[in-house]
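Notes on consecutive records. When two proteins share a document, each keeps its own sequence and its own token line. Never mix them. Below: protein one.
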Amino acid sequence: MGRLSSFLVFLFIFSCEEVIDLDLVQQQPRLIIDAIIRVDRSQEFVPIEVKVSLTTSYFNENEPASLDTAYIYYGKEENGDIINSKYSYLAEQEPGTGVYIPDPDSPTDQRINSVDITEDTTFYLVIEFEGKTYFSKTKFIPTVPLDNVEQGSQTLFEDEIEIIVTFTDDANREDFYLFDYSNGNYIVSEDKFYQGQEFSFSYFYEDPVEIGDELEIKILGADRSFYNYMFLFLQQTEGSFGFFETPAATIRGNIYEVSDIENPENTNNIQNPDANPLGYFAVIQEYKKTLKIE
């Protein structure tokens, strides 16, 4: 009886096997612009790297995009005008990669010097691709340094690693933070409940971390808009992602398609939000400490 039942189950499984062709809706490729620029004041130049790609079908990886033009200009904004503006023209680092850096072949140095950036500096990103123009604007976002980073021991599971981060919030401003724990692990925080105070909290690694590994723990500045974007992003990706992976299409960034707009800075004039690219443009200060796991 047991053999007969097993045979019938085997027959049922394989008689129901059928190849199903999914008729997926083919959507127009959408531009992805990932331009999260980190400023480390201990370095002479800002490591600018803008990665651009195109969305593809559900089962395929995104394809790098080759732009017509890409540049960043920046300066102090007064009454709608940019004072002492400077430009950084970008070029593809290697053909076909979609990664854009300050043009190394330009007759003048296109790198941005860290000393030129203050809390009053506003940055503008302009990209031209296949006859369309994309624009974004952001202010430099400062942050506070890390006071201490140490390994803790209050873990619930044997394979967990606890990292305790301590920093002191700036009492003179409203601060938002993005913490980068390496290996694609990020969390966000705001100073609503610790304004101007020293604050410590723990982070627990779920991914394997081995004894002897060296981790770079980083604190990054954020404004409310970037904080909200990252908060939603992390909710949809369960707290772990790569900046240059596909952003969720439901999360609106701060880069706009402005081809038919006379004043690109007035983003209220945009009539078709679905034409905007995915991704985000931010220029944020970074501090970091290295911790060796014991």
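Protein two starts on the next line and is unrelated to protein one.
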Amino acid sequence: MKFLNLKAVTYICCCVLLVASCAGTELTRTQVYPAFRGEPVSNILVIAVTNQEDKRRLFEQKFVALLKAAGIRAVSSMEAIPMPSDLKIEKQTVLAAVRQFENDAVIVTHMAGKEEKEVYTRGSYEGLGFYNNYGRIYNYANDPGYSSSKTNVRLETNLYDVKTEKLIWTGQSKSWDIDTRNQVIDEVIQVVIRDLQKNKIIASK
């Protein structure tokens, strides 16, 4: 009996780990460009490209906060640049902002894609023997199940050198099975900052 309980516990733990591994955010593609000369950037202007002001403000504020927590100076475009009604920022406005705040890099994030898909789910049964579990097997086979919607979101983030205006780093993230917009934003920013630190593009705190 104890052996069966141990097997059951092990099975449940494996299922939990499998579910956990199937949700979250990861960087699916990254590249460091020759414009990066090995000197970590230390002061970043953060720009989120979207036509929704509330999303832009939320993303930039969180990015700035997490960069500062990592020991990097940062300012959001919403704070640094007078925002036009169409939320489109002109190059000269960006250049004026980086001069004012003495930024050495600009980081820009935009949505690269979004996918909605239907997932079909139905109940499960414990296959511990045919005769004792026939009823459960029958119910499982005839369970109509239910459908739910899953959203996959891809964001692209590019880091530019202010002096040369060339790309230093680019990365594309994929988020899936995310419950809230805040969770997407938090996880994307965290994986981006970790990769920048790993490549010594920004200094680790």
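For the record: The helical segments are 2-21, 53-69, 77-80, 91-101, 130-141, 181-198.
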